[in-house]
Amino acid sequence: MYRFSVLLNRRFSKWCIAAICISLFVTCIHWMTMKPQRNLTPARKFAFMKNHKCGSSTIENIIFRYAHKHDLNVVLPESGNYLSKTALFDHRTLNNTKWRNLPFDIFSLHNRWNREEVMILLNEQVPTFTIVRDPVEVFVSMFHYQDKFREFYGVKDIHEMVEKIKTQPSLPVLNKRWLNYVGRNQMAWDMGLSPNIFDDEEAMKREIERLDREFDLVMMAHRMDESLVLLMDLLNWSVKDVIHLDLNRRKPDKSSPLNGRERDVLADWLAADVQIFRYFSRRFDERVAAINQKHSNFFDWIAQSGFYGQFGHVRQHAQLLKSANNELYDLCVLQEVGNEKLSGVFKETSNNIIGYVINEEHKGCSLFAMSEPAFLNIFQKRLLSKALKPT
């Protein structure tokens, strides 16, 4: 009887231990697979800082389609597509528009960034984001976008431009801006930084850290799909909100590859933008890691062995977006042609870029290739209609 009692107690103890282990395992899985509670309401009010030649036209088209679909009020100047060029943005510049008293939802056109004034205009603190690109690529893209850029600097091509920067760095024209707002360190200029600190590394560092506090997200042009996954997370949008065609791409014959020495010369000359790009490249990697961690669970950890950067949420959704973009292209695009062959709502301002001949039989395809001027015409008519509507 005693031996039976001991045996029973041992078996009971084993069952208790097993039950406890199972209970802990289930609790662990439940805890690790729980998603943090978040507001799932898609954002309909936000500010996008549009940097020159950083893939911003693609982002802007995504924003415009969203605004068009949801009848949102886009901030527009009285005419044109710039909210400011030489001075920092000031909300009072809209006082001469007929729609000045309307409530605005989206700030997204070219400007010189001034967060405080943007928030005054939007009348609340909203999500803010922008996009940056390798500064050498930014300058080369600007150089080839407008033929008059060569005339401004007095060179025949980009190679002669690099040579002038290398051999005559003190030339006054190198620090002047074409049309007073396009030139050296374009990203720093667009983001509202003073040219007086472009060559002051410590002052630039302080300003970049301030910009980091002002933007909820800084995307990377060379990692567009990942950037849009992060934007989806910020705005609670879905893949269908960010599918797109790549817009404003430069024609291949308008490019002239630089060698390593030439790129180094440009990078040294564009030191302020390089500092911006490197800082936000690091922050982007940190943001990707944080998003992967936020969306990870126990089963992901088992399958991926914790290598979130390689197999995590951002990479997976970027692949989904890429597939969706390929399907969109196959459905909507009949041909890629030079801008000079386009007309109507598809024609942009520069003929040095490639556009799309769209299959207009499929409803909605046209919006994916619609030019900025065409969209602005639609939004202006909407604002006028709302502003003149009797109260």
**Taking Cα atoms only, what radius of gyration do you get, to the nearest Å?**
26 Å
Instruction: Note the run of SSEs as H and E.
Output: HEHEHEHHHHHEHHEHHHHHEEHH
| Principal-axes shape call | globular
Low-confidence stretches: 4-8, 16-37, 302-309
Q: How do the strands line up in the largest sheet?
A: 2-1-3-4
Largest sheet: 4 strands, parallel
The portion of residues forming beta strands comes to: 5-15%
What does this entry look like structurally?
The chain has 391 residues and is α/β, with parallel strands linked by helices. It has 17 helices and seven strands. It has helices at residues 2-33, 56-70, 115-122, 135-145, 148-153, 158-167, 186-190, 201-214, 224-235, 239-242, 260-269, 271-294, 298-304, 308-311, 313-332, 365-369, 372-388, and strands spanning 46-49, 106-107, 128-132, 217-220, 249-250, 333-338, 353-358. Residues 4-8, 16-37 and 302-309 have low confidence and may be disordered.
What's the arrangement of secondary structure elements?
Layout: H1 2-33, E1 46-49, H2 56-70, E2 106-107, H3 115-122, E3 128-132, H4 135-145, H5 148-153, H6 158-167, H7 186-190, H8 201-214, E4 217-220, H9 224-235, H10 239-242, E5 249-250, H11 260-269, H12 271-294, H13 298-304, H14 308-311, H15 313-332, E6 333-338, E7 353-358, H16 365-369, H17 372-388
Parallel strand pairs: 1-2, 1-3, 3-4
Antiparallel strand pairs: 5-7, 6-7
Helix pairs in contact: 6-11, 8-12, 9-15
